[in-house]
Structures are given as C-alpha cells and as structure tokens.
C-alpha cells in the first residue's frame, strides 16, 4: 500500500512539474512573440534621425588582481643560480597610476532613408601623432536590434529577436524585477548547438507593459571573451527606442597568445632583463573596454551633404582635453588623466607608429626610407623569357610632398639581357576626391592576351606565381596619361590614354585586310569604373580609405583603339566586366564567386585579346608540372592553349573552417569549380602561334588545403568536359600554394 502511495505521489508530482514547464514555455514563447512584434515596429530604417555619441576605448588591468610580490627565478636545476623577477610588482605599480592605452572619439551621426553618415568632430589616439584612420570604420557593437544579423567585433550571428533568428536559440524567463519604469522581465537566451561557430549567450530585460527591450547583454567565449551591455531609452515622443549607453569588454579567451593592439604586443620599459625564463604574463590581466554614450537625438533635422559614410573634420585631431572632458564627464577615472601625458614611459609608442606606417606602406607594395619608397614589386621577379629579373623602383611619398610624386624603376633580365625602365610623375588635383593626374614613359614587356584590368594595377601582390612559366610576351614602348579620382561615391574612376609601339617577342604576325604587322603601334583610350556598393569609405584629411571591404565589387572597363592617331590603322573596341562576391556564413565558413566576361569588337591583335589565365606547363610527367597555384587561374589549362576575342568565366570556391591537426598545423579545406567559354571570329588573322578556341566550355574542379604549414599548402584540380585530354594524368594538376600573413 505504501509503495502504491509513493507511485501515485511521484506520478502526480511529475504531471504537475510537466504542467508548470509547459506553462512556463508558453509564457516564454508569448513574451518572445511580443518582443519580435515590437522590434518590427521599431524598424529604424523607416526613420530619419540624427544623434551624437562619445566613445572611449581603454586597454587596462585591475590593480587589485595583480600580485605585488617579487619572485625568484632559478636558472638551473640545482637552484644555485637565480635572478629576481620584479615584473609583477612593477606592472602593478604602473597600472595603479594609469591605463596602458586609451583613445577617444566624438561624432555626430545622421541617418537618412536607412543610410548612415558619420562626421568625426573630435579624435585622440594616445601616443600617435597621426591617428590610425582604418580603425575608425569598426562598429564594435550593434546599434539597431531590429536587424536580421548582429555583429560584435568580428563575430556575426543571427539576431535572437527576429522571427527567423529566434529558431536558432533557446529562451528562458529567469526573473521578474520592479524598476522605476514598472515591472520588467529578464529573459535569457542561448544559441543551440552547432548553429554558429561560437556559442552566443545573453539576456534582455523587457518592460512588461510595452514589451520593449530596456537592456541587452551578449556574451561570446572564443579566442577572446566578449561581453556587451546596451541600455535603451524611449525617444521620438515615445514612438521608438534607441541606445542611451553601450559598453564592451574584451579579455583573453581560449587563445594562448598575448593580447595585441594596433598590431603591436604591448611593451613595458624596465620590465625585462637578461634572463631567458618567461616572466610575468600580463595578457591574462589585461582587458579592453569600450564605452559609448549617446545624446542629442533629433528627428526633424535634415541630413547635411556628405560624400562618404565617414568624414573626419579638419579640426578633429586638434580638439583640446577640455572639449573631451565636457562631453565625457569622466572625472572619476583619475587614471585616464595621466595616461596621455605619460604614455611614452609605459608603451613603446614610437615602435607602434613606425610599424603601422611601415605595414600600411607594405600592403601597397612599398618599403619606406625617409621621403622615398622602394617599390617591392620591382625588386625581384622571374619568368621564362627574362629569367631572373632584378630591379629597383623608387617613388617619393608624402614626406616630400602630399601634392606630387616622382616615380620610376629600372630592371634587368638575366636571360634576355635587356634593360627595362619607367619614369613618370603624378600631381594631386583635389584632396576631397583624391584626384591625381599622371604622365609616364615605359619601356618593358607584358604578357600576351592578359586579362588584368586598369584597376588591378593599383593592387600589390608580394608574389605572383603565374609569370614564372609564361613565355609569350611583347615589348612595348608606351607614353601614358592617366586620370584617377573618387569623385563618384564608392566608385574608383580611372581614365587612361596610352600610345604604344608593340613588338611581339616570338614569331607572331597580325594579318589585316590591307597589311601584315610583325611590329605595330596602338593608341588606346580606356575608361575603368570599379564600384563597391557595400564597402565603407572614410574621408581622412589626406586620403580616402576603404575601411571595411564589402561585396559585391563590380568593375566595368571600356577601351577604344583610335586608328591613325600616332598609330597604325588598327581599330577595335573592348568591353570587360567583372563581379567579385564573397559570402561569409554564420558558421565561420566562406563562399567566393567570380564572374568575368569580355568582348573585342573589330580587328584586334592577339596581344590585346583574351587567354583566360592558364597556369599549367605543357610537360608529360605530372611531377614536372608542379608549380605554384594562382588564386583565379585555370590550373589544368596549358599556357597558349586557348585564345578568344569574346569569353566568359565563372569560378566558385567554398572555404571550410580551419582543421585543427596540431598547434602549428591548421589547414583550411577549400572546394572549387571553374568554367570558361570563348570564341574567336578570325583565327586566321593570327599567324605564328597554334591555339584552340573553347566554344564548348572548359571545366575543372578540385580542392585546396591552404596554409598547411607556415603559409604553404597544396591544391589539386581535375579537367573534364569537352576538352578533356586522353590520359588521366594530363587532366590532373597538382600545385603548391602560399598564403601570406603579414601579421599587421
């Protein structure tokens, strides 16, 4: 009887618990539905408004968490040799007085038809004479919680409070609190397993009467630990709610590396001595904190005219401390008052600034020496025609003058024994639109039927493996005039007039109805437009910078050969277009797309037609064909195999997350497929070279293991379809790859 009683009791208790759980789930779901409904009504894209905000970022540590003890480090096992380690004591002493680093910014923001424009009116970066403008495009924390996706630092994830995003999370009501505004409910959320690359957790406090979010917290534990908090308030006569303040904390996470800032590990004076033993590790105590305060919301003021998304006022870096103190009202934090004055004794600021300057130059292919830049692309190259190409390229920089520059290079090929050169100068017409006019003379060689566009000449490649195996070049002696400008928002405009004498460096003849040319002269007028609709640009006092790269990137180029204008009677028109697109997935994976096409109308020589970037050697043994892979080349297509006067190509690659094999071996698997179509109207006009056309379509697919060790990897592609070759190994290409990480 007693056993039966306990069975009935447990069944009743279980049923009651299940009933309460179901009721709690129903309440949670009802609350979530109301939050999403209010969120949709609070869509900020439908509003035109403006506001101001003050932002302060510091790198610091809590003095109370740091030991002030002085340790003994033994140099041998017998403990007969030792040194005194006072680094922890010194670090605590310094951090008690001031922060490690800090920066402040004051901006006015205007939003019109969902488009945001920022005008920076005050800016201070401790220890740096010139601010790092590239960092100013970072959002750090989400302003609008009605968006489908939210971004915190580099972490992008689905918004828990949208109809679609809520399916990716688990929710639970954990508390009910009483505030001045009335009763509020605390709702916790947590991302479901295997949804995102990094687990997302957090909570929101919801006003029970209006179902509006009054406070939100997000937590991400990854390589770094991130915590954000946003306080919301009602504005616009109670119609909308906006952030009043935000804070973000970053601490060391799962990673085993020290926290870096601006590409430099923080260094402290008098903290080291001759001991080889590792001393006090600061990285576990250091944190980064960013605070934002919002004010002056206005819903009637019209947006001022501003060319780019972010603009820095000319007097922004000249703002005095009184200006920031009046806005910040931050008199409690006494350590901040000493940080700017004594930063040089705490952080090696000069090294940071020099490294930033050097890194920015190197990304653009330049090595600075005073007022001269050495052009890295001209130092060393290799190809089948020249052999080893050794050279020196120089250009003046802003330290000589921000309004003009003189440039040139000289190079010598060890195989062909010929000297090549270029000389030119550029003049800046407008700072506001970054407009330059350039004139130059070049005596050099260029690949036959190259696919590159004018916009590609501005991008630097530290190494380009394709030319290693190219043998079909032409010599050109060219006079050029170039106009470059960003006078159209988000569009890079280049106009070029080029007069060239072209001498093919192999047995090639170009046949026209009137004559046959083995050497010919061309005058080309070319217009290139590169549009980046999703990128974020910043207009700094000296330049216009792309601070956040967005996709797609669309390039259109039109070239017209003008006959009998200091040239031969050769006339044709070329139209080229290219679309680059990159999709980053919430799982951390990435998919890239390339769509490119071109057509030549008229009778153009082979030097100015298309070869769709082949990258395979015509050799029997597969091991003898192993070379370096190129990012957008066709790895199984042989050099000089196909030529076209009209073509189209499509490439897709899917990048998986890093595969952790060991601490030093973390390759990335990439799957790729490439295809191309092409045709040539009058192949008989091109004598001295044997080639095919690809009307039926060229196909190859394969995989890449990138960055297996120290940047090196392997890739393999297989050729199939109408132009598949008879033997299996003829269709297979195995290539080395290299991924460069500058660490800046």
How would you describe the overall organization of this protein?
This protein has 744 residues and is mainly β. It folds into three domains: 11-41 and 142-256, no CATH class; 45-132 and 262-363, no CATH class; 431-738, Beta Barrel (Porin), CATH 2.40.160. Helix content is 11%, strand content 46%. It contains five helices and 42 strands. The model is unreliable at 13-21, 257-280 and 344-350 (pLDDT under 50).
List key phrases describing it.
Outer membrane protein assembly factor BamA, Porin, 46% strand, 42 strands, signal, globular, 744 residues, 13-stranded mixed sheet, 18-stranded antiparallel sheet, mainly beta
Q: Total helix count?
A: 5
What sort of overall outline do the alpha carbons produce when their principal axes are compared? globular
Would you identify the regions where 5 or more consecutive residues have pLDDT less than 50? 13-21, 257-280, 344-350
How many strands, which pairing sense, and closed or not: the largest β-sheet? 18 strands, antiparallel
Mean pLDDT: 83
Q: How much of the polypeptide forms β-strand, as a percent range? A: over 45%
